[in-house]
Amino acid sequence: MSPVPISYCREHGMLKYAIRRILISIPILLAVVTLIFFLVRSMPGGPAVAVLGDYASKETIEALEKEMGLDIPIWQQYLVFLRGLLSGDLGKSLINGMPIAPQVARVLPYTLELTLSSAIFGILFGIPLGVFTALRRNRMFDYVGRTLSLAGISLPSFFLGILMMLVFSVKLDLFPVVGGGDIRDPIDSLHHLFLPGLTLGLMMTAYITRTTRSSILNVLREDYVRTARAKGMRERIVIYGHTLRNALLPVVSLIGVYAIVLIGSSVLVEIVFSRPGLGKMMVGAIGRRDYMTLQSVMVVYAGLVVIINLLTDLSYGLIDPRIRYD
Amino acid sequence: MNAHSKLWRTFKNNKTAVVGAVMALIVLLTAVCAFVIAPYDPLEQDVFHRLTPPERSHLLGTDEYGRDVLSRVIWGTQISLTVGFFSVLLGMVLGTTMGVAAGYSGGLTDSIIMRVVDVLLSFPTLITGILIAAILGSGLVKLIITIGIVFAPRFARMAYGPTLAVKEMEYVSSAKVIGAGSLRIITRHILPNIFGEIMVAGTLWMGTAIMAEASLSFLGLGVSPPTPTWGNMIKSGIDVLASAPWLSLFPGASILITVLAFNMIGDGLRDIADPKLRA
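ok -> structure tokens follow
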């Protein structure tokens, strides 16, 4: 027996791993932020032309560029941008001159509550559905479940949102058609969240059902499952004790991937339901050619993606005791 | 030949794949024969029949300019399949080149290419697509380039692993010994070995590419009106959803059928590739 409790080793190993993993995320985030900065600057026309229009005089454009800090060399602009990011300053909107960080802070909770609620919905329904379809393989329940989940991943989220809106808002008049509600009022917020959350939640359920099903089917073929059955163990214990936990590891890693797909799809759902959020802010910024806002929203998305990947990696250790972080 | 006919028999026995293939074939035929089967010119306006519900003369109704929705859905098939096919092809060419170059050359080139690929892959496809579409602008060719660029890292990842494996094979070493150059080794030995897998992935991602096209067009970043695409038809229908739901419903159903067809083929091919999972 080890003189130090295993739980102690695991916790400390995990802490070390978490720190190492966070340190690795920094250069990745820096690379993405750099890519976004230069991509946004490669847009046709440039920000000053975007604000003033194609027919503005050269002097007016130069004056505005100076005001925006665009007259200095691009690497200096890049350093200013990075310095701003480190202090939480995302710059100012090109259209109304308002600081962007408070606007992001205002809409971010809406995007987070949407993606988080649909991820939870997907996990709560997807995993049991996946388990049941796998256990009733090639029976009616399995066929229906498989067909529905295949349709679920083939349906664009914006179209599913429109169907929801048509049935629950237009025909049944149960939920508001547009808007995000007052985030400080939980009832109003939930009322507005229900349809967009259900839309993305159903999509997530389809993905998770499929992954769980095939993962369970893979594990059911393992020798240790056959041994457990041969020993005369009750089927319940074979499924919940031996199969489920082992089958969940690939599911958790893919939930991370699907969460990123979810963030992408949230853009479309926010547009369909006219719901405040990062996606609506981004599409609005493109329409108004507000490059600074576009760049800031992209940076926030990059941050979210890095955090999701980090959490996914760290969660492995919680469900798989075989994983050691040393 | 024997292996081929065995594979074909397995494919034929897989109901999901066959139904998917038949659906995809019908969609393809609709696109090819659009000029024959579309009852009206998709751009022809008829101010006297605006927002007509589905009826005998307009089976799927008309839109806010009196244009026939059925004809627009049929012509939209052409745009969707064109974008789907060429963007996947572009992504395949770009990505395979990147993956093979990284895997074959190794060292610093490998590290740089594959790190960029990993970073791009970790980002939501749609958000990357939106950023690139915003930079390039709208239009059919630009949309194909946008989706092609978004798909390239997927193909690069896919080509990279097998390239590393094939590079170490004895026949590649033998080719090097007899003085074959890198280009010859890549075209004669590496590409033929990884081609099959990449083609299958290309078929699977057709559905995703079509969905990406519809999403970008829905956001106004794809093909602009009046050219009919399923995405921009849904977008213009959303304002009159309560009074004229058919404007959004039929193009949406077309996307569902088409993407479902490719996903069914994909599921079938996966079952065939992994006999353990065969239903």
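The first helix of chain B runs from residue 2 to 13.
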